[in-house]
Amino acid sequence: MTLILGYWDIRGLAHAIRLLLEYTDSSYEEKKYTLGDAPDYDRSQWLSDKFKLGLDFPNLPYLIDGAHKLTQSNAILRYIARKHNMCEWGWGMGAGSRWHCPGLGQSELLRVCLWGVAAGGETEEEKIRVDVLENQANDTSEALASLCYSPDFEKLKPGYLKEIPEKMKPFSEFLGKRPWFAGDKVRGRLWGPGVSFFAGLAFGAHARFAFLQLTYVDFLAYDVLDLYRIFDPKCLDEFPNLKDFLSRFEVSLLMPPLPISFVFPLLPDALLVVEGK
């Protein structure tokens, strides 16, 4: 079923939602409402639909998924994460790193992709970090939006530019050396008979690995940091870990999670076990 995302025809609060929909390869269409020019900001397009959609709390953005109709941008993000089982993890063939595996026959190459994405954190610490960052990202985004929509924008802009390092520093310290804002590394192991694996490790032995855990608030964090980067392209120069986060996130969008598949047409006698730790 095709989802319907309703919002103004701007980036705004729907950008993180769009990113997550794309990341999860969701089938969706957008209902975009035009907002009139200043100073009146005519909203008649939206108002003509507002009370006809069956929304409990009519507002923008909204998401309609069959009988499920919801508003509030963060609630929508959480819904999409749950819908796509993003608190699970898996192993997939066909993308990711290439490993030399003589037992695979013709190509002798196994493509392995390990991924992990959590809807809202797994441990209590991660859940706390998710809750805190969700609200902090919203506050920081709203502060910039208030400036940009202010009639005194040009007068206020120089002072706001000076304040940006103070706004970015807590994000940098909160992220620290983590790959993602809430999730850290989740460890596991692979084993099975029959072929060599991981540059000479016997497949019969335990081959330990670590994969990264992404949460829906990373989509919010990316959105707000990218907005500030657009507003002031040099604002993250003092915070290399935030720049690395943006780059890491952009790469992740090009390599979304794969469905789990345990099909080995070239290796009928193989056994693969994936065990999370």
UniProtKB/TrEMBL annotation:
Which intervals hold domain GST N-terminal? 1-88
Membrane spanning residue stretches: none
What Enzyme Commission number(s) appear in the record?
2.5.1.18
SUPFAM superfamilies recorded for this chain?
GST C-terminal domain-like, Thioredoxin-like
The record's catalysed reaction(s) read: RX + glutathione = an S-substituted glutathione + a halide anion + H(+)
Give the Gene Ontology MF terms in alphabetical order: glutathione transferase activity; identical protein binding
Domain of life, per the record? Eukaryota
Q: Where in the cell is it found?
A: Cytoplasm
Show the InterPro entries listed in the entry: Glutathione-S-Trfase_C-like (IPR010987), Glutathione-S-Trfase_C_sf (IPR036282), Glutathione_S-Trfase (IPR040079), Glutathione_S-Trfase_N (IPR004045), GST_C (IPR004046), GST_mu (IPR003081), GST_superfamily (IPR050213), Thioredoxin-like_sf (IPR036249)
In terms of CDD domains, this protein maps to:
GST_N_Mu (cd03075)
> Which ranges carry the GST C-terminal domain?
123-272
Its main subcellular localisation, reduced to a broad class, is cytoplasm
One example of a Gene Ontology biological process annotation: lipid metabolic process
Alphabetized Pfam families for the sequence: GST_C (PF00043), GST_N (PF02798)
List, alphabetically, the GO terms of the cellular component aspect. Answer: cytosol
Presence of the UniProt keyword Cytoplasm in the record:
yes
Q: Which UniProt keywords apply?
A: Cytoplasm, Lipid metabolism, Transferase
What is known about its subunit structure? Homodimer.
Give the UniProt family note.
Belongs to the GST superfamily. Mu family.
Q: What is this protein called?
A: Glutathione S-transferase
Can you name the source organism?
Answer: Sus scrofa
